[in-house]
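Q: Protein A?
A:
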Amino acid sequence: MNGIQRISPLRLALAWVLGLTLLRLAGLAMTGLELHGDEAQYWSWAQKLDFGYFTKPPLIAWAIAATTAVCGDGEACVRASSPLLHAATAMALYGLGTTLRDARAGMWAAVLWITLPSVAFSSLIVSTDVPLLACWALAALALRRTLDTRLDPRRSWTWAAVAGAAIGLGLLAKYAMAYAAIGLAVHLALNRDDRWILRDPRGLLILALAVAILAPNLAWNAQHDFATVGHLGDNANLKGRLFNPSHAVEFLGQQFGVFGPIPFLVLGWRAAAWARGRATPAERYLLALALPPLAVVTVQAFLSRANANWAVTAYPTAAVLVALWLTDPGRARAWRLWTVGPHLAAGLGFLFVVASWPAITPPHASRALARLSGWEAMARQVRPILDRNLTLPVLTSDRMTMAALLYYLRGRLTEGAPVPGDTRMPVWIFDWNQRPENHYELLDAYDGSQGDELIFLADWDDPRPILERFERVEQIATLSVTSFGRSKRLTVWRIAGYRGPIQLGG
């Protein structure tokens, strides 16, 4: 016991973080789960690096390009950035907890983060939330250090530069990083001692760096009719019935699963203490960053709908808040056990299921994970058809089919027009309403100029609206794959003689 007590909090934090990260990387290498359509789409973006994409800023594509450049295009390498970035998030929270109290609080912040069930889940997929959270945690640390080192210009300029870079990169991960500006505004409105940053060149440096990093993405959006910004409005879905209390209750209930029951209750309790003027300065800073995204998305859920992950930026600083509570003097050790223990057990259980898939397939897990299987088998059925039609471009009916086949037939197909010397056949998408709704429809929509005769892969139950736009139509196959009770079906056609787009509204 004395030996354990002599281990520094930093080493304990590193042991937890590195141990679980290595286990998750091993689980990714062992799993038989295929890429989800969204993951396959992000991979395809990484094949054509840019400063923006239709639904998201570019950082997710850059992260995938970095990991696949090191270890190849297998599913594990496509997803490898997620456990690595969560490890970086945990260590940034260690730094924030240490700054606000001591290394012991920092260690528990890192441990709490790396054991959260939602972190265990998102470590095993590739998503835009993961780089966003890493940038958010680093920005929260760097902002706090900047504010605390006002009288040490050399250090505060360095931390100001880190804060500006973290905010800018966070905006390139997901525009939800803008909640940080709201949180900082709330903090400064309520804490006079930190308002010096508004009059200081170091505050201007933070803003200038963030804007400079975001600027290429803004330029990309301007060139593409602000497609990503418009997509945010579509997600908000503020149409139809605008008062849905049950949606708000459901969203808040989901947050107990995202952050864990005890941590979410502690967050609510300390928020109530803040409202009564009983929070410490450290808690006020953490809550100012945590509560705005949670409040805004709860209102969004009340007005329309909200996904459980839309408020994830609440939880990096909330994890530090809970760590401060867990390490309060006199706090019983059992609270730490009952907070972290169930999370760790749930995360390890999920990792075991993923790593052993499909050798071990628990019934409920099989139904939930079934959509992460089947496309590789479908690609094996599509390949011989393409091999018999080597000169024909491919037309697809929808985004998910196009993304999955681009990935699982990556040696045979390429998105849009191939570069000179590339022998793969191009894949296009049919934009049925001439209104881009995804990145492929924005940049790879078929308009007749890409080839008169094509192989058409249709995921629609009734593809006649598309088929009617061609003079010659021949069905050559019906393909079907059933995996764990879920079926995927494609009809394959040889089509020619494009008549023009579907006529809408008449």
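Q: Protein B?
A:
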Amino acid sequence: MSLPARVPSNSADDELHPYTRILSPRENLLGGEPVGKFGVPHLRQFFEHIGRFPSPLLTATETHSLGRSFIPDDETVLVDIVTRWGEPSPSREYMRSGPREFLAFHPQTVRAAIVTCGGLCPGINTVVKEIYQSLRNIYGVKEVHGVQMGYRGFYTAELDTILLNDVYLKGIQHRGGSVLGTTRGGFDLGLIVDSIASRGFNQVYIIGGDGTHRGAYKIFEECIRRRLMVSVVGIPKTIDNDIAIIDHSFGFVTAVQEAQRAIRAAYVEATSGYNGIGLVRLMGRNSGYISMMATLAAGDVDVCLIPEIDFDLDGPHGLLVHIENLLRHKKYCVIVIAEGAGLQYTQNAQEEKKEVDASGNIKMQNVGLWLAERINSWFSLRGIEVNLKFLDPTYEIRSVPAVATDNIMCTLLAQSAVHGAMAGFTGFTCGTVNTHHVMIPMKEIISRGRNRVDLSSRMWHRVLAATMQPPLKNK
């Protein structure tokens, strides 16, 4: 699909603003078919007969004013917005989310299910409530069910689904956790799709991270294989912000803000003691985004260690010597370390134990406790007194309610999911790209792997400028 040139609407002869750039059709630029546009699967691709109903946003009196901003299916959002003047500008693009003029489901026939999977994250309850409210209040859907305790709630006898209502969901956006409960693992494709079919669900909203989305995509494929007309929608949830493509995931802003409490406490402890060291362990199994952004926000951190960097402990340019130098010159030191940092020292032992969690991830040693022990031992052998305080706010951060910015994001993600499902789109996840809400094919999300900090990015360079930490490598 070609992007039209953006010209003033009042007259075709008007001159363009001097800073306006016309994006030429990409098939002309690249000498072939249009590139970069990832079409979102639609039920019409798999079924000959699907509904076509006018949106209640257009027909219902109480929601008529909302129908003035229908989104056409050919409206997209560009991903790659940084270009060079005078050069071709190919870019990935995704379908813009929002209400469509016609629906694939009549609201009276919808039986929707919502499930939350994986670990806790601020904002889950807001997403659940807003999916329910959008279905009920905007589209008039009567049956919205909550699936308890993650994927296993679809097929476990003692975990019956909950028919959601206003009383049950009242005020949950002000609470942390998940009102539906959430667990890792429990994915059994056959039993889950059996449950979807037997319960008559035709819309399934799945809130979770990378692993959850891999399961959701399998559910989408199996529903198509079984000829079940079900819209399967994902809402990306990861406190670590490691889902690819999207600007950031909900709960991330809250996590960074809450991490400041621990960093401030570490700073107070470090500056109040003799040779004080404040050590804070934050979330980030594979990606160091929380540690990176919390370090920038705090302004008091001397060392930021994330999974994306290797560092030496010993040697003339290693971490321990750098800490000694900081104590010599500043009399204190504040260190932030992500849970997945330092794997070159801790992972082998864990792999030998072959202990994994319910999601299949190798259980990690607490790198904060490990580093604290190494620091204390190193200085003790040299007869240098240090006062190290270790803080680990991981579960405290995960369990808090979302801040206003995240609550707004959760609300908009939920509305986008509902608009897409009601229009008949399936096998997609909602997210923000360059601040605009889009629908991204699940296959595209899971194929790109986890998002990681780019060590050549300006953002990481800003962290290095703020901390003034050296490479921490002897070679």
